[in-house]
Amino acid sequence: MTQDTITNQAExxxxxxxxxxxxxxxxxYLDAGDLGEILLPNRFLPDDCEVDSLxxxxxxLDSADRLIATTEKPLAQVGEFVSLKVAQxxxxxxFLDWGLPKDLLVPYNQxxxxxxxxxxxxxxxxxxxxxxxxxxxSKLDKxxxxxxxxxxxxxxxxxxIANKTDLGFKAIINDLHWGLLYDNEIFQPLRVGRxxxxxxxxxxxxxxxxxxxxxxxxxxxxDFADKFxxxxxxxxxxxxxxxxxxxxxIKRTLGVSKKTFxxxxxxxxxxxxxSIEKNGIKLL
Length: 284
Hints:
Layout: E1 5-6, E2 15-23, E3 27-31, E4 37-41, E5 54-61, E6 67-70, E7 81-90, E8 93-97, E9 104-107, E10 120-127, E11 134-137, E12 156-164, E13 168-173, E14 177-182, E15 195-203, E16 209-212, H1 217-234, E17 238-239, H2 247-254, H3 258-270, E18 274-277, E19 280-283
Parallel strand pairs: 1-2, 14-16
Antiparallel strand pairs: 2-3, 2-5, 3-4, 5-6, 7-8, 7-10, 8-9, 10-11, 12-13, 12-15, 13-14, 15-16, 17-19, 18-19
């Protein structure tokens, strides 16, 4: 979730930090710039809310199509990709549970495949400029930038895991571009919709992007060192894993390759943070 927009011009479908300009029996009215004055109902008022206070709110249309502010947090804002569950389907389309009283509509013409109640789908949340209604679409390609991406090898990026392919998982990079994670380089469980930090492994000549979930070289060892120390701390300072352990066991237990595991242990040994015991590794 992105940070609040601190502005006098509120944006529908996003979190905004707005000033209270009046309090009434119904709640507080907020200055939303060109959108006018928007009500924050009593049930959402912070305890310390007074005139001239700043409050963080999400703005959307209620069931009567009136602009309303809330301090409740939906699972996504306009412009973000998110995996949501279908709560109901009717003649208008599918309605997704996104954490607010009013479900999020996916019209039939925005469904990549026909949606079914109880199933999860990866969607993009968008604002219909004509109606000012917030909606969602599972036709993801229309929201992906068609221009070649300008990334550098090793660059840290934000990923949203998308569909499984024969090669691995497609992922959406920074809510803008497609990339690919290869099966043989994934050492942790992934699911559609998961938000995770990743890295650009390679920008191909054709503009396509290969991804990886850990930094290469020394960066990978440094990234995993803290995680391994926390693992030891959570297990009474000891693990029976060692350089003779099965690679699959290391992968299942720690989420990294045996090569990264051994390099990390070697680095921690040099720093005097662990010791090699007869039956495992001990935290010092």
